Amino acid sequence: MTVYLVGAGPGAADLLSVRALRILQRADVVVHDRLVGSEILELIPGSAEVHDVGKIPGGADNQTSINELLVDRGRTGRVVVRLKGGDPFVFGRGGEEVTALSAAGIDCEVVPGITSALAAPLAAGIPVTHRGASCGVVVVTARGCARDPELARLAAAGLTIVILMGVARRAAIASQLLDGGLDPATPVAVVERASTPEQRVQRATLSDLAAMSVVSPAVIVVGAVAALDLTAVSRMASS
Hints:
By secondary structure, this protein is of the alpha/beta class.
């Protein structure tokens, strides 16, 4: 018995790994998240049993019922795919699902996916590290850091801060980072629905973040690199 935890990447079907595609195409059961791209959902075999277990922002935590569903279907001996947006182990609670399956005596194979924490900046032409602008990158979730002093401690010069699940808490994020010492003029970029046809990139400064009109899902990038757009540079060079 094996359940596959498959990273679906940021949304575009052609960013799915070859291994992930092969496993998905022979799935008997698929349990997927809300943020899995529609193009990828179309790759699920028509004969598969499909469960949409996507969490609604602000809704009840249904992780326990998801774990129970995976254990129940995993015991049937069928090919069960747990399809998760991005990478299963980057704020995807994949570790909890592996633990639940292991406790039930069910093997689990994890297939990495491209996390939106890196794919979204890349899609916007933003290098999360760049000589002279960023000497490192830190990835955080706003479902925690924006409510306590931890985010303020990340306001260190020379670091790129990538924030997931931060749309609803962007005012608190800006306040925390400003309190931590970041300059109000620090560049900020917000990448909505990265890699999909609906992708939109907005650039501003930290002082403007709270007032920005942003639609979830989106990734927030804070730091000097957020002002860069290397895709535009590439287009100019090839024209």
